[in-house]
Specification:
By secondary structure, this protein is of the alpha/beta class. It folds into three domains: 2-86 and 261-290, 3-Layer(aba) Sandwich (Rossmann fold); 92-253, NAD(P)-binding Rossmann-like Domain (Rossmann fold); 299-383, Erythronate-4-phosphate dehydrogenase, dimerisation domain (Ribosomal Protein S8, Chain: A, domain 1, 2-Layer Sandwich), CATH 3.30.1370.170. The protein is built from 16 helices and 14 strands. It has helices spanning 12-16, 32-35, 51-54, 74-79, 92-109, 127-139, 148-153, 164-167, 193-197, 216-223, 244-249, 262-280, 308-319, 322-330, 337-349, 369-378; strands at 2-6, 21-25, 40-43, 61-64, 83-85, 120-123, 143-146, 172-175, 204-207, 230-233, 252-253, 299-303, 361-365, 381-383. The strands form three sheets. The chain has a six-stranded parallel beta sheet with strand order 7-6-8-9-10-11. Helix 5 packs across helix 6 and helix 6 (127-139) packs antiparallel against helix 16. It is globular. It starts with a strand and ends with a strand. The mean pLDDT is 95.
Amino acid sequence: MIIVADENIPLLESFFSDIGDIRQVPGRAMSAAEVKDADILLVRSVTRVDEELLAGSRVRFVGTCTIGTDHIDQQWLESAGIAFAAAPGCNANSVVEYVLSLISLRAEKLCINDWTELSVGIVGAGNVGGGLAHKLERLGFDVVVCDPPRAEVEEEDEEAFAELDEALKCDVVTLHTPLVRDGDHPTYHLLDAPRLAALNADQLLINTSRGEVIDTAALVQRLAEADSPCVALDVWENEPRINPELAELAWIATPHIAGYSLEGKVQGTEMIYQALSRFMGLPVRKQSGQFLPEPALSKLSFTSAADEMDAASTAIRCCFDPRRDDARFRRSLSLAADERGREFDRLRREYPVRREFSSLKIQLKGTSKSAQDTFRALGFKLKL
């Protein structure tokens, strides 16, 4: 049995070598010729899986080790009798931690000692947006959640959801929607020129969903104006050939790595391994915990002299500081378009190991219950 897989999927050999012979190829350049004799196809978000790729192949199972599925033509797969599985929620916590780090940096930038003074508008309440809302509420933030599709079907809980314009008034606006081009609730260019014009210099706009959710041309024009919002972007229209002018104008710019924690990527692999095992009638014998290495940093200690917010910020940045990814990314912006695209993919392919907050044990000596609650809400392990 032949398994063709994106070379960026972690632990391929560990999870799938017992099932078939693995052939690793670059995901963005994957071609019909490379998958023609494959029985199983494993991809990430950069591979378009449709009739053009698979017609005439012997592929019977497709798995994407990612949350999103807009790169998969599920209707065609079903018509062709090809089984499909995704990994919803696999890296949701990784994206949540990316956003929390940005909010922490924003509070520092504004010289705000208590970051919960910032209101947060969440657009899209799926695995990522819902998880973020839960953590922010536990931390004491004022959270406004907008999700029209959910509001429509969950009428009995309509007070839980706000209109988009209300969410766009918050100090931090963070986007977590799928890319939907048609239907009652399209998200393509959801933030267009009029909505971007309504944002002001006191606000932070974060996009970790899909680049096409924001109108790039309109955003470039808006950011050139004096009262423009602060913007942090991890996703871009036309990846990997992103608009360098937009990246230069952004406060934080990263190459689509918000969900790239080691735990998130490995969990995606594990979920597809489980789905493939069920499809083939095989026992599920492997778990991601068997393969996760010891973290480079395993423990931090704070005494009663530590300020709660300073301590939390220190711990967050020990695990993840997006300014490092921003610095690496900006070095590529002066390259020619083709080189810039290759560098975008290289930064993702060779992304350094990033561990989630749960990998770090926090020792608190004589600290307040409030500090303990904050670290627990963030997801750190505590040693009191």
